[in-house]
């Protein structure tokens, strides 16, 4: 059987580039189509020279008919509010789609409109697109034609909170998330606040109480435990290229200790290929997950104060975006889940 023909729509952004890099080494796929924001004379390997010898494709402005003709499977690495106008055409043509934007993540259209400032344009497909966190929805992903790839902050946060919440160990109204992200999380764009001279030697919080990932985290935690969960989420921008470190503070609903909490997490994730739970109160670092699809988790309980701290580390372009998207493709297409990933 031939290789799966895969297209990356939006291949010149950070996530799109990472998708092309990962897919260029995938054993079961052939990259057959890429597009950028505008027509270029260069090929994709001219834009990103490390791809020379691995990919040989023009990188022109998006052509729907061209992409449909040349692909079996597509990744939509497009700005929020754009993918929902593009995905229906691919689905109608019988293609499978992973959308790495936010357009199919939030199932309440009014919440989507509140945070993304536009009505949702594809209600029909929204309800059928599973949230692409394999640790939660693997079975739904297997049979899906369209998967909503999770956001980067939600991935690290949900994976860090979920086992303790489902086990009834955490008070669900006590969750506070302090998350710090590298600059690539904001996308490849001209923005004064993201240039080297503004970001280097600095650290700042932003979008307090209004970040678009808050409803995404709350939606999935609420679904997982069967009742409403509200969080406090404070994101920070740090002078790194890639990586997210999330420090999560929760009150304990019942008496436990570090060892017992670690056992709960190890049992919950025992069959998950890309989640590592640290032992003995050890804590993860961004450098240990950079350029991988792993989520590393460390935990510690203060029994006197009756609180737990969970620390998660992911690569925002890996498990937080492109790596997880490829993981979803592997599941959707019946490949080994870890194929092409590290």
Task: Describe this structure in a few short sentences.
With 342 residues, the chain is α/β, with parallel strands linked by helices. It has helices spanning 14-23, 44-47, 64-70, 83-92, 109-116, 123-126, 134-142, 152-166, 196-199, 214-225, 258-268, 318-333, and strands at residues 4-9, 29-36, 60-61, 73-76, 96-99, 146-148, 176-181, 204-205, 232-237, 244-251, 275-277, 295-302, 307-314.
How would you portray this structure in words?
This protein has twelve helices and 13 strands. It is an alpha/beta fold and 342 residues long. The chain folds into two domains: 4-129, 3-Layer(aba) Sandwich (Rossmann fold); 152-316, Dihydrodipicolinate Reductase, domain 2, CATH 3.30.360. Helix 1 crosses helix 12 and helix 8 runs parallel beside helix 10. The mean pLDDT is 95.
Order of helices and strands: EHEHEHEHEHHHEHEHEHEEHEEEH
**Named CATH architecture of the largest domain:** 2-Layer Sandwich
What's the total count of β strands? 13
Number of helices: 12
Mean pLDDT: 95
Strand order of the largest sheet: 8-9-7-10-13-12-11
The CATH C-level class name of the largest domain = Alpha Beta
Instruction: Flag low-confidence runs.
Output: none
Q: Helix proportion of residues, in percent? A: 25-40%
Residues in β-strands, percent: 15-25%
Distance between the termini: 25 Å
- Output the structural class: alpha/beta
- How many discrete domains? 2
CATH superfamily of the largest domain: Dihydrodipicolinate Reductase, domain 2
Shape: globular
Walk me through the topology:
Elements: E1 4-9, H1 14-23, E2 29-36, H2 44-47, E3 60-61, H3 64-70, E4 73-76, H4 83-92, E5 96-99, H5 109-116, H6 123-126, H7 134-142, E6 146-148, H8 152-166, E7 176-181, H9 196-199, E8 204-205, H10 214-225, E9 232-237, E10 244-251, H11 258-268, E11 275-277, E12 295-302, E13 307-314, H12 318-333
Helix pairs in contact: 1-12, 7-12, 8-10
């Amino acid at each position: 059987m031939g290789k799966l023909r895969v297209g990356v729509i939006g291949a010149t952004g950070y996530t799109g580039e990472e998708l092309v890099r990962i897919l260029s080494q995938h054993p079961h796929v052939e990259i057959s189509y890429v597009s950028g924001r505008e027509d270029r004379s260069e090929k994709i390997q001219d834009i990103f020279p490390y791809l020379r010898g691995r990919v040989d494709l023009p990188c022109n402005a998006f052509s729907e008919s061209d992409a449909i003709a040349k692909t079996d499977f597509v990744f939509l690495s497009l700005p929020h509010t754009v993918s929902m106008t593009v995905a229906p055409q691919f689905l109608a043509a019988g293609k499978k789609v992973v959308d790495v934007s936010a357009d199919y993540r939030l199932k309440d259209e009014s919440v989507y409109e509140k945070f993304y400032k536009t009505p949702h344009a594809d209600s029909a497909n929204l309800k059928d697109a599973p949230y692409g966190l394999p640790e939660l929805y693997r079975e739904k992903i297997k049979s899906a034609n369209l998967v909503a790839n999770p956001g980067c902050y939600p991935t690290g946060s949900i994976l860090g909170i979920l086992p303790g919440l489902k086990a009834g160990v955490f008070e669900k109204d006590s969750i506070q998330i302090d998350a710090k992200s590298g600059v690539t999380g904001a996308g490849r764009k001209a923005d004064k606040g993201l240039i080297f001279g503004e970001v280097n030697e600095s650290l700042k919080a932003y979008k307090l109480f209004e970040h678009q990932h808050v409803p995404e985290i709350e939606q999935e935690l609420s679904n997982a435990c069967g009742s409403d969960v509200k969080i406090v989420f404070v994101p920070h921008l740090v002078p790194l290229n890639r990586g997210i470190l999330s420090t999560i503070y929760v009150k304990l609903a019942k008496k436990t200790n570090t060892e017992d909490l670690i056992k709960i997490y190890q049992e919950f994730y025992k069959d998950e290929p890309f989640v590592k739970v640290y032992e003995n109160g050890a804590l993860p670092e961004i450098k240990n997950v950079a350029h991988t699809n792993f989520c590393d988790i460390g935990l510690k309980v203060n029994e006197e104060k009756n609180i737990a701290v969970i620390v998660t580390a992911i690569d925002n372009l890996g498990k937080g975006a492109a790596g997880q998207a490829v993981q979803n493709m592997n599941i959707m297409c019946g490949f080994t889940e870890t194929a092409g990933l590290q």
